[in-house]
Write a structure and sequence with these properties.
- By secondary structure, this protein is α+β, with helices and mostly antiparallel strands.
- It has four domains: 2-163, BirA Bifunctional Protein, domain 2 (2-Layer Sandwich), CATH 3.30.930; 181-276, no CATH class; 282-448; 454-571, no CATH class.
- 49% of the residues lie in helices and 8% in strands.
- It is built from 20 helices and eight strands.
- The strands form two sheets. Strands 1-3-5-4-2 form a five-stranded antiparallel beta sheet, with helices on both faces. The chain has a three-stranded antiparallel beta sheet with strand order 6-7-8.
- The longest helix has 35 residues, at 419-453.
- It is elongated.
Length: 572
């Protein structure tokens, strides 16, 4: 349940006319009172004899009783209370009770206060009510409304629990502005699932992902099909911008433009410019990464950047962490834009919900996010990835690493008591978990085949390696369906000159595995990235025609080094 206190007004009759009228876009249906300071107050929505003027005079009576010089200039108080879309439709009696709780909680009309402010609650839609009040009490005094917004939020949380409604996490004022009722009804009439405000926010966010400067940003907005207007200073500098969808027009047929700040707090031009102007010392900045050669290369580099960011989120200062979290959103946007159709839906959903997690009151120390922003840029400029081969396998690799990074971001937000951001990050991780099988099933199946075809002596050898490197997790890993794929990867790493035990120990030490759903999968991708093995096993060298990697049996390994430790020749 979402309470919103609107700006105070000076004309009671104007707000009454709006609440009982058809709405900006004919979205108001059956306007009527559900509760008021006096149960006998006339209702212009249901009583044909009642008028807007009668209701206005009753509400304004304490204001008009004051001498003209003592009347407040803005005496009209306005609170809307909206249920979540998934909540059941509440009855008028339920909304009446909610209205009484809200005016009591905010200090408009406390329980048992016979001289409280006058108020009325109007319902003109299934999912919300509007409460109008006048800010002079019947005894002529002003109400005490200190922190009424915070108290309204607290009461909303209690109402959600009492009525079994969706439990909304408390906000901190950094969320993007929600679509208005008029915008939502307009979208419904046009058969669209999202409002223009929501579509524009997503397009602007994607256009900003990985940009290196102002012209590139505006070029991307135009390429996305948006109408763009810049606000230019006399000096020729751009002061701001507005965007519109070509098909979204007002009654005069003119495009409806939104400024970046009206879409989200971090999409104003000054805030976007912060991404391009690092605030850290030059000595702490990472050098620019060289150009990528294709989608698979870009995904590998994004995996490395995500791993570096994960270490920062675990151990860094709050401002640096906030920058990494914000840049993670850019990587998600870029990945969603360039991934194949079978993973795109879940990746887009992850990017959309993580948008809420990318902002908080912790100011991002820009410049420390260079590697992630460069990774986002590489993803965009490398172009669309195929859903198979090295492109598809490296998509699985980067999804696996981003899952850990976003989970770490959720834990950081939780520690900082950023409830909405933590919830958004957890939801994004859920979408990544859903996207992972679509990208990973084919390469993991091929690795599984290769591991299953290894000679029993090699399978035993690699199992021993796991027990030596990861004694606490070995039984679990060896029992997982993905174990043959890990055995194949250890085998391939050994052939390319790596010590599997050392490599596995390093891979496991980089991040805990207890919370991983499939530890063997996580280790496969870590090992393949650390050992620079192809993500798609079909690209590996030294493969036998039947699919198993060529290698001598344990005890006959002269061409690659000494005999494997702890393996008896009798086990060949």
């Amino acid at each position: 349940m979402i309470p919103r206190i609107h700006k105070r007004g000076s004309e009671t009759i104007g707000l009454i006319r709006y609440l009982y009228g058809p709405g900006t876009h004919e979205e108001h249906t059956d306007p009527h009172l559900v509760a008021a300071f006096d149960p006998l107050i006339p209702d212009p929505g249901r009583d044909p004899q009642a008028t807007y003027g009668q209701l206005q005079r009753l509400l304004d009576q304490p204001v008009n009783a004051l001498p003209a010089g003592r009347r407040p200039k803005r005496h009209v108080w306005h609170l809307s209370v909206r249920a979540s879309p998934e909540d059941p439709i509440l009855s008028d009696d339920d909304w009446a009770a909610i209205a009484r709780r809200m005016v009591a909680a905010t200090g408009i009309a406390s329980d048992g206060d016979d001289a409280a402010c006058r108020w009325a609650a109007v319902r003109h839609a299934d999912d919300h009510i509007h409460i109008i009040a006048t800010l002079v009490r019947d005894d002529g005094r002003r109400p005490r409304l200190h922190n009424e917004a915070r108290r309204a939020q607290a009461e909303a949380r209690a109402i959600e629990a009492d009525y079994g409604l969706r439990r909304i996490k408390p906000g901190d004022g950094t969320a993007a502005k929600r679509p208005t009722s008029a915008e939502r009804h307009k979208a419904e009439r046009r058969g669209r699932q999202r409002t223009p405000r929501e579509e524009l926010r997503e397009e602007v966010r994607r256009s900003a992902a990985g940009t290196a400067g102002e012209e590139e940003f505006f070029d991307r907005l135009t390429a996305a099909g948006l109408l763009v207007r810049r606000r230019i200073a006399p000096s020729g500098d751009t002061l701001g911008y507005t965007v519109a969808l070509p098909g979204d027009r007002n009654a005069k047929g003119e495009p409806i433009f939104y400024s970046g700040s009206k879409l989200a707090p971090d999409l104003s031009l000054p805030r976007i410019r912060e991404r391009w102007t690092p605030t850290s010392d030059d000595a702490t900045q990472q050098p620019a990464l060289p150009s990528v050669t294709g989608p698979a290369s870009a995904r590998r580099r994004a995996t490395t950047a995500a791993w570096q960011a994960l270490l920062v989120v675990d151990q860094g200062e709050d401002g640096v962490i906030a920058a990494q979290v914000a840049a993670t959103g850019e990587v998600l946007d870029a990945l969603a834009q360039t991934s194949a159709a079978h993973t795109r839906h879940e990746l887009q959903a992850a990017a959309t919900v993580f948008e809420r997690a990318s902002r908080s009151h912790v100011r991002a120390a820009r410049g420390h996010d260079h590697a992630l922003r460069q990774a986002a840029r590489d993803l965009v400029h490398s172009g669309p990835a195929l859903g198979r081969g090295e492109d598809g396998a490296t998509t699985a690799m980067v999804i696996d690493m981003l899952f850990f990074l976003i989970t770490a971001a959720a834990h950081w937000h939780a520690r900082k008591q950023h409830a909405q951001q933590a919830e958004a990050a957890h939801r994004a991780a859920t979408h990544l978990r859903a996207a992972y099988p679509a990208a990973a099933d084919r390469p993991m199946a091929l690795l599984h085949q290769q591991g299953s075809r290894l000679a029993p002596s090699w399978q035993h050898h690699h199992a021993t390696t796991v027990r030596q490197a990861l004694p606490a997790l070995a039984d679990r890993i060896l029992a997982e369906p993905g174990w043959p794929a890990l055995a194949a990867t250890l085998h391939e790493a050994r052939i390319t000159g790596h010590d599997p035990t050392t490599l596995l120990t390093r891979a496991a030490a980089r991040r805990e595995l207890d919370t991983a759903e499939r530890a063997s999968d996580v280790l496969v991708w870590r090992l393949r990235r650390m050992a620079d093995l192809p993500a798609d096993p079909r690209n590996s060298q030294d493969r036998r025609a039947g699919g198993a990697l060529a290698a001598p049996a344990p005890g006959h390994s002269a061409h690659i080094g000494t005999r494997p430790a702890n393996i008896s020749p009798r086990r060949r």
